[in-house]
């Protein structure tokens, strides 16, 4: 799935003027969703993690605050060199509360995460790439995203979904826990139809035609 903004920006963040008109509704959005680990604001970003396909964010123009958190929760991010990014919550005396405490730590060290969150400083796509916040930077990030998506689409949809689940569920866990997840996912893949299709295609050479995701 490719995620991009329509118009002059990927996302300039939360519209405080609009949200502030209904304080009761705003307060309700902070309530944890029953049966979920997130509230409504967090779910807007965390939802990307539950999708069984890669989510690729394409950044241009401005990417501020909540918009940046939407992008950070994606699996990959491609940006134009001149895209402006910022953890802009600092400007309003706030903190990033749409999963930023998790997604920032996955990509940068604590000192940089604190610096960006405390200052709200602006930085461009080139610097974001240097810091590891985006996967690639070019004048045509949509093309980069589409090329990556096309390459991934040649692989078994089962193994792609399992790979996403594997790393998301084990990245900060112990080796023992990670190895257990590896084993369970691999056993499921080995008994699936798409593994058989991939194995036969790998031997014979034709482009595999995979079935629906298991």
The helix tally amounts to 11
**Share of helix, binned:** 40-55%
Strand composition percent: 5-15%
CATH architecture label of the largest domain: Alpha-Beta Complex
Give a verbal description of the structure.
With 214 residues, the chain is an alpha/beta fold. The protein folds into 2 domains: 2-151, 2-enoyl-CoA Hydratase, Chain A, domain 1; 156-204. Helix content is 51%, strand content 10%. It has 11 helices and 7 strands. It has helices at 16-19, 23-29, 40-50, 65-72, 100-107, 110-119, 125-131, 141-152, 157-170, 175-190, 193-204; strands at residues 2-4, 56-59, 62-64, 76-79, 84-86, 123-124, 136-137. A 4-stranded parallel sheet has the order 1-2-4-7, sandwiched between helices. It has a 3-stranded mixed sheet with strand order 3-5-6.
Keywords, separated by commas or semicolons:
10% strand, 11 helices, 3-stranded mixed β-sheet, 2-enoyl-CoA Hydratase, Chain A, domain 1, alpha/beta, 214 residues
Brief synopsis:
With 214 residues, the protein is of the alpha/beta class.
Q: What's the structural blueprint in terms of helices and strands?
A:
Blueprint (H helix, E strand, L loop, with lengths): L1 E3 L11 H4 L3 H7 L10 H11 L5 E4 L2 E3 H8 L3 E4 L4 E3 L13 H8 L2 H10 L3 E2 H7 L4 E2 L3 H12 L4 H14 L4 H16 L2 H12 L10
Helix pairs in contact: 9-10
């Amino acid at each position: 799935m490719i995620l991009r903004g329509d118009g002059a920006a990927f996302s300039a963040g939360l519209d405080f003027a609009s949200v502030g008109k209904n304080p009761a509704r705003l307060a309700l959005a902070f309530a944890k969703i029953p049966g979920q680990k997130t509230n409504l604001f967090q779910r807007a970003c965390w939802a990307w993690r539950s999708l069984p396909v890669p989510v690729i964010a394409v950044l241009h123009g401005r990417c501020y605050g909540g918009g940046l958190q939407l992008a950070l929760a994606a699996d990959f991010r491609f940006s134009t060199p001149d895209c402006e990014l910022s953890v802009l919550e600092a400007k309003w005396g706030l903190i990033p509360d749409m999963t930023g405490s998790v997604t920032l730590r996955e990509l940068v060290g604590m000192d940089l995460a604190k610096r960006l969150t405390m200052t709200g400083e602006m930085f461009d796509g080139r610097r974001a790439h240097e810091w590891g916040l985006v996967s690639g930077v070019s004048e045509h990030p949509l093309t980069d995203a589409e090329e990556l998506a096309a390459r991934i689409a040649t692989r078994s949809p089962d193994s792609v979904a399992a790979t996403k689940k594997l790393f998301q569920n084990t990245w900060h866990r112990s080796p023992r826990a990670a190895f257990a997840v590896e084993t369970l996912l691999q056993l499921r893949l080995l008994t699936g139809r798409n593994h058989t299709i991939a194995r036969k295609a790998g031997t014979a050479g034709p482009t595999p035609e995979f079935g629906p995701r298991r």
